[in-house]
Amino acid sequence: SSPNYQPAMATYRNQSSIRHTSTINNANDADNESDDEFSLNSGSPAPSDGGRPPPLLYLRITNAKVVCSLLKTIQFRDLATICASVNGLKVTVEDCKSLQANVYLQTSLFSQYTLRDDEPLFFKLNYVMLLECLQMFSDTEASSPAVMELFLPDDRSAVELHLEDAGVVTDCRIRTIEPEQTLDFNFNAAALCFKVIIRSEQLKEVFSELDPHSELVEIFVSTERRLFRMSTFGDLGRGVYDFPAESEAVEMFQSPDVSVAFRYRHALLKCCLKALQASAKASIRCDQRGFLSLQFLVESADGHNCFIEFFLVPNQPEDEDEIAGSDDERH
Question: What would be one Pfam family of this protein (predicted)?
């Protein structure tokens, strides 16, 4: 059944002068430092408005374009679920039960990040609306980057964005939606079928050459020949693209005990293209069930390493002839 929520909407207010905001100081309080790999920026409390309680979540970044460019890489559906934790934000977009994309925004990316409670915080919103708000200044050729502040008030009714660029302040308010539980693919990273790390530049070339008319893309990893292969099947024939383990494009090759092959819907792999184009390298992992994990390392404009991850479900063959035929063709 559909969740009860009000339609997502945003309100804007432009001002010709800089709006006054509370001064935020980043105090170095050793007693409040986290033992996590990515610790929470601590010291100053989140700013409050009048008599309202402090927001559940407050963050500030001095270059909104950094966040916008990362979030655009998983823009293939209208809604997104956001999880805020002491390690940062995880933004999730899903396609039915076949594909999940996650962007990880670590606390080190923000100049200020305050989570009022220690427990993870979940909320859902209109992703298209969020990106439209972020792109208002991100697409301009301004001499200085736009500063973004994000608030989630105590009632969780809406996400409030404040963007400032060259003396112009824009306030946006996007209503939230009651979040549903995101998919758990139960991906077992400790029991991988194979793992390959490939430089994105070479992998982009292969993605651009995949037959667009092929409904499926096969990923084949050979133990004997030590190679990673992507294949398409179209009216014009079969396309084969190999990455030998010894090639310069391959930085890591962990092969299975026996050669394996799984097929995936081409339409799902296309959703990864924006993240691939923005990345420096890609980690391709597969578990025993054929569930695929694609992790992309992206270096942001301000020098931070960020990660984007996709989980894909393998295509189930309709009959054994499809499997047998593909085995014959590989040789």
Answer: Rad1
